[in-house]
Prior knowledge:
heterodimer; A: 395 residues; mainly beta; Porin; 16-stranded antiparallel barrel; three-stranded antiparallel beta sheet; 3 helices; B: 138 residues; alpha/beta; D-Maltodextrin-Binding Protein, domain 2; five-stranded mixed beta sheet; 5 helices; 19% strand
Amino acid sequence: MQTSQFKTTMLCILMLFSLKVFATDINFSGYGSIRGGIETDDDSASPSFGYDDNVDFKNESLFAIQAKANLNDFWSATLVMRAAGDEDYDIEARWAYLNYQIQPETVITFGRFALPYFRHSDTQDIGYSHNYTRMPISIYAGQEFDIIEGIRVAHSTFLGDGDLTLKGSLGAFDGEVAVLGQQRDIDINNIIQFSAEYSYEWFSAYAGVVSAETTLDINSALGQQLIYTLTGYRVDGDQVFSPVTNSYVYNMQDAYVDEDDSLYYSAGITAEYESWIFNLEYAAYDIDDSLFEENEAYYAAVSYNFGDITLSFVHEDVSYSFDYEHANSTDPNVNAFLIGSTDALFKDDEYDAQGIHLRYEAHLGIAYKLEYTQTNHDLSGDDNSVVVAGIDFVF
Amino acid sequence: MYLYKTAVFVIFLVFSHFAAAEVAVIVNKGNSSELNKATIKRMYLNKIKAFPSGVSLKTAGLTATDPITGEFYKQVLGKSAAQLKAYWSKALFTGVGVPPKELESSEAVIELVKSDESVIAFIDSAKVTEDVRVVATF
């Protein structure tokens, strides 16, 4: 996951810290979560958010510490180191960046930062900042490539009596993701992100888009699988030949993830009126010209605040379009293989879930959380449930 | 007569207690900005980061547990201390803003405002001195 760009950024920040340490105050702050949870049905194919039938305190626990130094009125350097239980508490530089305040309402960020794919992507691991045990997994699945190296511009302004916050990012990611149970190399280049959030009194709305050029190292495996599955068929370069006619029947580029455009878009609204909070968020993404199907996810949450206690009901849903656009061969056997491969990749991911989340403000900066969520797996018809208790804190 | 005096004294105490709950928003005497409630709210929520003159601003106030702070959060920002802690933690950890600097006493806040033209702060209005300029009371 570490690129030379990231290493250079780290080196710059370390140099700045060491040069300025005597002249500048370094402000430390941090956040974290300790959670324990269990699933109720170990045999179910339905999602359990990383929990099994033994009580687990590691899966969703994490600690992060931020060090920030103001170099002068315009420049600041920030480093956020995070140790997460699901990564064996290996310390990772989640954020490592220089901020330049070009004008009071415009800040440019250079370095490594969390990409706001969706509305709360860049703060989803700060449990204290929201009312749930976790942001709904249907949208906030925590992609491996949610941290990028690049440039971000944030600008805030007014629109009528409301506030408008705009964010734009440019960057790249080079690392690994898990596909079909194996770690695969993934390159995501030309990542361009843009989002706008408008808030007026008790109402706010958000819209965002991310486009990128994705290459996923599953192409040779897909070709081999085709030869293995369809006896006599031949893959020569990108071209598939049928043994019956000995002629070209398919271009594998229509299924490969090779410098293909991915597009993520999302929208959300929040209404926070007196003691009620309503949240709705929708997100969709697709990789063009590949075996990927369009993913659609949404969640709706209603919360009521009783002073120190906030009770939330969350409904979430993940589905795919399954229009099999890439299965466009003249040969039905090839199409059957392509449809089967797509189903194997995505059918298993469809589910919906309903959860109750309780937040108790124990002290300012410390919140206790309790959750019960039932998940329903579309493919198998199985259901499952998780019970999770935890403590979120910021300091 | 003694009873009457006691009653007046008690009433005075009660009223002085209410008076103490009034919040004053203050700036440096060299800062001539005219600020209304909506602007002050935007400043504390990191939506505005400079005074109308262009001078960049830093927010400050009393500690979160001080009753004056609670009054300011309720009257001006319209949120509870916990909601604001959550809001500011998002801003802090994404690099878009910092929470207000918290000081133990109104006297300490006045000292900070006196020494720094870029600071806006809130204190107990009963503690206001000649050293600072009041832009609003709530």
